[in-house]
Amino acid sequence: MLKLIALILVFIYVVMPLIRFLMKAFVITQVHRKMSEQDIRNQQKSNARKEGTIDVDYVPPKQKAKSDSLEGDYVPYEEVKE
C-alpha cells in the first residue's frame, strides 16, 4: 500500500510536470514551424508577378541588318510622262 502511494506521488510531482513541459515545448516548436512556413509563402506571393506587368520569357535573336539587301518585294517601275 505504501508503494502505491509513493508511485502516485511520484507520478503527480515528477511525471505530470515533465509531460507538461514536453507538451509545451512541442506546441512551441509547431507554432514556430507554421509561422516560418507562412512567412515563406508570403514572401513567395510578394515575389510573384504583379498585376499589369509583362514578363518576356523568350526574345528572338536579332538578325544583322544588311544595307545592300532589300526587305520585302521589290517592284521596278518607270515614270510615265504625259
From TrEMBL:
Top-level taxon: Bacteria
Sequence segments annotated as region (Disordered): 62-82
Stated name of the protein: DUF4834 family protein
Organism: Aquirufa echingensis
